[in-house]
Structures are given as C-alpha cells and as structure tokens.
Write a structure and sequence with these properties.
CATH class of chain B: Alpha Beta
Strand order of the largest sheet of chain A: 1-7-6-5-4-3-2
Helix content of chain A: 25-40%
Number of strands of chain A: 7
CATH architecture of chain B: 2-Layer Sandwich
Order of helices and strands of chain A: EHHEEEEEEHH
Oligomer: heterodimer
Shape of chain B: globular
Largest sheet of chain A: 7 strands, antiparallel
Helix content of chain B: 25-40%
Strand content of chain A: 35-45%
Shape of chain A: globular
CATH topology of chain B: Alpha-D-Glucose-1,6-Bisphosphate, Chain A, domain 4
Mean pLDDT of chain B: 96
Low-confidence stretches of chain B: none
Number of strands of chain B: 7
Number of helices of chain B: 3
Chain lengths: 174, 148
C-alpha cells in the first residue's frame, strides 16, 4: 500500500507559470452540449466568424493538436496558431507550443460544471510566463498600468470575448 | 487495449520521478533509445521526439507529455510507432510506507490492421510483447536510479 494522498497538479495549479487569470460565464445549455461545443473542433470554422481556417492534425478523442488561422489583431493579416489539448470529462486543458510574441509560455484550462439540466458554469483559466523584453515593448508600462497588468487585462479580455461568443452561439440553440 | 506494469524502486519519489522526467537521460538508461529531442518544455507541457532501435530498424515517435512532479507523467504519441494508430499512457509514482517508490506504467494503444501496415497479430498478442518491453524498461530505470 502506498502513502501518497496528494493530488497531482493541473496546468492552472502548476508552479511552472507565473501569471494566471480566471473568467467564467453561464451557458444556457446542459453540460454535455456545452462541453461538446468546445470539444468538437470540426464545427468551429462554421460557428466562429473570426476563424479563417482550422486544420486538425491529430484527434484521438482525448488528445488534440490543431492549427487555427485567425486575423491578427495588429494588422488584420492571417495568423496561424498551433494548439495542443487534453480533453477529459468536464475539463479541456490546452497550451500553445509557439505562443504570442509577448509570452514565453501560454496555456490554460476550461472547466465545465452543471448548474442544472439547462445551465452550465464554464470557467476558463489562462496561465502564462512573460517574455520580459517583448512584453514590455508591446505593452509598455505607463499610467494605465504595468506590463504585467496590461497583459493580464488583454488575456482576461480575450477570455470574456470567447465566453460571450459561445454563450451567444449556444443561447441561440436553446 | 490497455496494459499496466508496476515496479518498486528503492529511492525517494523525487529521485525516481526525476529519472523518468528528464528525457535527456533516457539514451543512457535505455540502450534501445538512440536519440531524444525536447523541442518545448515550460515546466508542465513538453513536446518531444524519440528515436528507438527496433528489430525492423529505427523508429521515431513524436508527442507530448504533461509533467506533474512528483506524481505523474502523462504522455501521448501523436506520431506513434508505425504499426500503431494510437499510443498514450501514464507513469505514476507513489511513496511506499516502508520507503521507496512504486512506479506504475500504463499504456493505451491501438494497432493498425495488417492492410494498413499493422502486425499480423491480435492486440492481445501484441500486448504481451509490449508488456515485456515496458517491464524491461522499468527494470533498467530501477537499476539506474538505485545506482545513483
């Protein structure tokens, strides 16, 4: 018999990352549908207007690797990002091997909790490590905040937009 | 198809975990591992490729690992061995009350059919071969860690 009772860390509790932000929203569909919407990459190009193309390079039903092309916020040019995901019941963990220039590392986790038959709490946590030089060039510290604060606000804002977009899509199904 | 092998290593959990976690050490521990490349590691997520010597020649697999020290190393090979459609698994580590570490190795795999280039054996038959490889590797890790 073993003595270990501690739970393994997950990406949002790992000490590997210096920064994190958490946002959540309620989706007006059951947990199964909420999870399926985020899990099923084959529907994202159809449902999400900001996605120009999504290419799935690996999907075994749990682990996924895909390339998503979106319009760059900076100049509207196409930008392709590779993501790797680990999908287990109620949880989708993700990271980007090549994150945005201002980050050394970036990943996160979606958690889905049933609030009832037709409501699901969806929480997204982003975790990251800054690329100090590039982050301070792209998000220079000023009266609006430090580089760290500006990056956190940007990523939290992305989370809120993502959650709102999926709320609207799934809300129109209800 | 899923297989599991377990071994006890006479060493603290942190030292046992470290040997499995550090892929750069694998060629020195496992004689059939000829090359390893870690292309990404943030302390939790890892992308790697590994070339191993097999009876039919060298094979290179590629994949990702999730590093949760000192308890778990979860892995998926997004480019598995040529005869497989899927390979994933888990190394888990637990302290023993009498000292030492229990290391549990689990693998989930699916074989290609013979038409797809898979072996002319069932998954059950192949599982026996894979268990032998896993057992051998665990014993080599045990030797290496206990020798430290």
């Amino acid at each position: 018999m073993t003595t270990t009772t501690t739970k393994p860390v997950s990406i949002d509790t790992s000490p590997a990352f210096s920064h994190r932000c958490v946002e959540n929203a309620t989706f007006s569909v059951g947990l199964e549908r909420a999870y399926e919407a985020l899990f099923d990459l084959t529907q994202w190009e159809r449902l999400l207007p900001h996605i120009l193309r999504l290419e799935i390079s690996y999907d075994d039903g749990q682990y996924q690797e895909f390339f998503m092309t979106v319009k760059s916020e900076a100049d509207g040019s196409p930008m392709t990002v590779r993501s790797v995901r680990n999908c287990t019941p109620g949880v989708i963990e993700f990271f980007q091997p090549h994150p945005p220039a201002f980050l050394l590392n970036h990943g996160g986790i979606w958690r889905f909790t049933a609030l009832g038959d037709d409501a699901t709490d969806v929480t997204i946590t982003h975790v990251w490590n800054l690329h100090p030089e590039r982050a301070s060039q792209i998000f220079p510290p000023d009266e609006d905040g430090s580089t760290e604060e500006k990056v956190a606000r940007t990523l939290a804002g992305h989370s809120r937009i993502t959650l709102r977009t999926w709320q609207d899509i799934l809300g129109s199904e209800a | 198809m899923q297989i599991t092998e377990t071994i006890t290593i006479d060493a603290p959990i942190e030292r046992a975990y470290a040997a499995f976690a550090d892929l750069d050490r694998w060629p020195a521990i496992l004689p059939d591992t000829v090359a390893v490349d870690v292309s990404y590691f943030d302390g939790y997520n890892q992308e790697f490729s590994m070339t191993v010597e097999r009876p039919g020649g060298e094979e290179t697999v590629r994949g990702f690992r999730y590093c949760r020290p000192p308890l778990e190393l979860e892995l998926v090979q997004t480019t598995p061995p040529p005869i497989m459609t899927r390979m994933s698994g888990l190394w888990s580590f637990a302290e023993l009350p009498e000292g030492g570490t229990e290391v549990n190795a689990t693998r989930r795999f699916s074989l290609k059919t013979p038409d797809q280039g898979g072996p002319a054996v069932t998954e059950e038959q192949f599982a026996t071969t894979l268990k032998t490889i896993l057992r051998t590797n665990l014993e080599l890790f045990k030797e290496a860690v206990e020798r430290e």
